[in-house]
Amino acid sequence: MTGEQAEARPGMSRRRMLGFSGASLLVGAAAGAGLDRVASADEDGAAGAAIAFRGAHQAGIATPVQDRLHFAAFDVTTDDRDRLVRMLKEWTDAAAAMTAGRPVGNGAAAGSPVAPPDDTGEAVGLPPSRLTLTIGFGPSLFEKDGEDRFGLRARRPAALVDLPHFPGDDLDPDRGGGDIAVQACADDPQVAVHAIRNLARIGFGVVAVRWSQLGFGKTSSTTPDAQTPRNLFGFKDGTDNLGESDKALLDEHVWAGKGDGWMAGGSYLVARRIRMHIETWDRTSLREQEDIFGRGKGEGAPVGREKERDKPVLARMKPDAHVRLAHPDSNHGARILRRGYSFTDGSDGLGRLEAGLFFIAFQSDPRKGFIPVQQSLATDALNEYIQHVGSGIYACPPGVREGGHWGDGLFA
Ligand code: HEM
């Protein structure tokens, strides 16, 4: 935690200032241990607290999942490498401020009266809300239409592959790809939206939003002790997920290794916008719904077991049950950290909800994580009720160190 992050915001109460100082110590110690942990000493409680922006790993991956998402993918519109790096530095300063609950630059109502304010203002007075901002670089940043745009072609990590076509995909190119992605998660949607909006504003002339997605109701948890959230099909989602306490498993399955150059300590993000056919599902019997997942709808226990956390017996599930096909034992031990959100973007003009799961998975190598698991899901009984309509893959670098900035390893 930097001094700047511990700085009080205007209007902050003394009690809260003390809370933040205590939190700074907590975060500082945890960041030293490479844990990127949460500052929870704030008087607003966990939901209002600040999460350390700097550390060995980026926050927003293994840190506890917040309630809301604003995900945005940007196209780089300049061919000026230096200008792009300058913007990434400006983004880093803004991200450090916003995640600490401070406004960007001079704030919303200070500075020159004849220029637009540095901050757009809609988060003034709101707590940090556990905002995390996680950046990733898409394959097209390294090479687009055969062109080495920024001299980065040789820096493209081998694991940043173009995702193959999967059976059933109906991908909309306007809801996929992008040179740079930012995942903003917070407990208050206004805080997440404010963060993306201000990054887009700072990036004007350098980047343009290509596509974005709002999400609510986290569909996975990285804190196994917390109550497991439910997805829009009404099932507990995220029971068997990797969490912040699984340090050895995170090292093995989520963090890129030392051999991965500038990506060491980073992770690969796969995003899939998955439409869920809610109306068809709602006409499906309870038994069939439970057979499809291989878990009960109430307690969330695996078929033939009693409690949610009981070990699944895959052989007892139908051969095409989702959990059976996605389980590490069916995929040579492949594991991913799921961090998705539900979405409902109104209705589709045919009287159906335009709803689904914005699936996000982090892994140390998508060739050993998302890709084989998704291939195994080709025969998933769930496929009758869902369709993948958007897709992206991004290399998320390690955390920003003191004095460093987003992309410093890549552009070094
Ligand atoms: C709309 C689409 C999806 C829905 C509604 C859904 C729902 C669920 C539910 C309810 C569970 C059981 C509880 C749990 O352990 O979390 C589960 C487990 C799981 N899902 Fe999905 N899922 C979807 C898509 C996917 C995709 C695209 C993948 C990866 C390619 C995936 C990978 C997994 C994994 C790895 C597990 C844990 C299996 C285990 O170890 O027991 N899911 N999912």
UniProtKB/TrEMBL annotation:
<comment type="similarity">
    <text>Belongs to the DyP-type peroxidase family.</text>
</comment>
<keyword id="KW-0479">Metal-binding</keyword>
<dbReference type="InterPro" id="IPR006314">
    <property type="entry name" value="Dyp_peroxidase"/>
</dbReference>
<keyword id="KW-0349">Heme</keyword>
<dbReference type="GO" id="GO:0033212">
    <property type="term" value="P:iron import into cell"/>
</dbReference>
<keyword id="KW-0575">Peroxidase</keyword>
<dbReference type="GO" id="GO:0020037">
    <property type="term" value="F:heme binding"/>
</dbReference>
<dbReference type="GO" id="GO:0046872">
    <property type="term" value="F:metal ion binding"/>
</dbReference>
<dbReference type="InterPro" id="IPR048327">
    <property type="entry name" value="Dyp_perox_N"/>
</dbReference>
<feature type="domain" description="Dyp-type peroxidase N-terminal">
    <location>
        <begin position="58"/>
        <end position="216"/>
    </location>
</feature>
<dbReference type="GO" id="GO:0005829">
    <property type="term" value="C:cytosol"/>
</dbReference>
<dbReference type="Pfam" id="PF04261">
    <property type="entry name" value="Dyp_perox_N"/>
</dbReference>
<dbReference type="InterPro" id="IPR006313">
    <property type="entry name" value="EfeB/EfeN"/>
</dbReference>
<dbReference type="GO" id="GO:0030313">
    <property type="term" value="C:cell envelope"/>
</dbReference>
<feature type="domain" description="Dyp-type peroxidase C-terminal">
    <location>
        <begin position="228"/>
        <end position="400"/>
    </location>
</feature>
<keyword id="KW-0408">Iron</keyword>
<dbReference type="Pfam" id="PF20628">
    <property type="entry name" value="Dyp_perox_C"/>
</dbReference>
<dbReference type="GO" id="GO:0004325">
    <property type="term" value="F:ferrochelatase activity"/>
</dbReference>
<keyword id="KW-0560">Oxidoreductase</keyword>
<comment type="function">
    <text>Involved in the recovery of exogenous heme iron. Extracts iron from heme while preserving the protoporphyrin ring intact.</text>
</comment>
<keyword id="KW-0456">Lyase</keyword>
<dbReference type="InterPro" id="IPR048328">
    <property type="entry name" value="Dyp_perox_C"/>
</dbReference>
<feature type="compositionally biased region" description="Polar residues">
    <location>
        <begin position="218"/>
        <end position="230"/>
    </location>
</feature>
<dbReference type="InterPro" id="IPR006311">
    <property type="entry name" value="TAT_signal"/>
</dbReference>
<keyword id="KW-0732">Signal</keyword>
<dbReference type="InterPro" id="IPR011008">
    <property type="entry name" value="Dimeric_a/b-barrel"/>
</dbReference>
<feature type="region of interest" description="Disordered">
    <location>
        <begin position="218"/>
        <end position="237"/>
    </location>
</feature>
<dbReference type="GO" id="GO:0004601">
    <property type="term" value="F:peroxidase activity"/>
</dbReference>
<protein>
    <recommendedName>
        <fullName>Deferrochelatase</fullName>
        <ecNumber>1.11.1.-</ecNumber>
    </recommendedName>
</protein>
